[in-house]
Amino acid sequence: MAASVYISKNLTEAQVTFLKLLDEYEIQLFRFEEIEKQIEQQFDNLNEVLENLVHKGLLARIERGKFRRTNFTDENVIGTFVVANSAVAYWSALNQHGLTEQFSNTVFIHTQLFPAC
Question: CA separation (Å) from 13 to 17, 27, 66, 84, 96?
């Protein structure tokens, strides 16, 4: 958390508005750079709004600049969201498609490092 971010005790109007817009647009996962364009609204200090919502447990940070709603727990979707050009693969894909009853404790995500020519 940035040292200059003020953590409010209660939800502010901007925080409530942000959560309502996430509900309205049915957004479960988002990137910091893209969210204002997705919800079609600008915030004065989006970083402060997000830090407060994470601190209050209403959002969860996946990694730097990537967030999810706390009630969204689909590991396969989250795994493919973290890395561009990726897909559920190997044992996880077999289990997803019902080709095995065994499941791994690890979610396997295959990534393509270099774009196809």
Answer: 6, 19, 23, 33, 41
